[in-house]
Specification:
204 residues, alpha+beta, 8-stranded mixed sheet, 5 helices, 32% helix, binds zinc ion
């Protein structure tokens, strides 16, 4: 359990405003979620089509483990809910943030032929959970973009058992970045570190 509904909602609204100001979630792009509880499982997630720079408490839904809203209403959860459900079912994942930045999009295209990219040698890598030296390398897989999110979620789930699993994020080709953490603060720090590193590599 990370915190109360009101507190998490306020924090997610603040993340949205911050990420929008930095150009990572323009024009209703992106979606955010945070685990409210495990028994029973409850996920707070942005409703579909909301502007992430101007989020308000009414722009969120609480879902059960099947992705169904706990309280029926007119809003639909994010179209990419299956990815949030799969990731937050993994041990130690309490929040998932998804952005559509310029550099994530550029790199997702540039490295798609290699199936992903290595991040290595940069001091900023120490912002990632479990990375203690800049000499440690982090693999960022790239998946093809699709509207079939349940199939993509299954593909990402399989990648965790692959020889080069995602560390705390992955890219979707010509689309954007998913990153996660044990809580919202860590997921947000991971997004910032990825975005910094993507821009460094992109500009280089
Ligand atoms: Zn997206």
């Amino acid at each position: 359990m990370q915190g109360c509904l009101g507190e998490l909602t306020r924090e997610l609204c603040a993340v949205g405003a911050d990420f929008h100001r930095r150009g990572w979630v323009l024009a209703t792009a992106g979606n955010f979620s945070a685990v409210l509880g495990r028994q029973p499982y409850r996920l707070l997630i942005t409703a579909s089509g909301r502007h992430k720079g101007r989020l308000a408490p009414g722009d969120f839904l609480t879902l059960d483990e099947h992705g169904r809203p706990v309280e029926p209403g007119p809003d639909r959860p994010s179209a990419e809910t299956a990815l949030h459900l799969m990731l937050t079912a993994r041990p130690g994942v309490g929040a998932v943030l998804h952005t559509h930045s310029v550099w994530a999009t550029v790199l997702s295209e540039r490295f798609s032929g290699e199936g992903g990219l290595w991040l290595g040698g940069y001091e900023m890598l120490k912002a990632f959970d479990g990375v203690t030296t800049h000499e440690q390398r982090v693999w960022v897989p790239i998946f093809d973009n699709t509207q079939d999110i349940p199939t993509l979620a299954a593909e990402v789930a399989r990648a965790f058992a692959a020889p080069r699993p995602p560390h705390c994020g992955f890219l979707i080709r010509q689309h954007g970045l998913y990153a996660w953490g044990r809580d919202l603060a860590e997921a947000s720090r991971h997004i910032e570190a990825f975005e910094f590193l993507f821009e460094v590599i992109g500009r280089r």
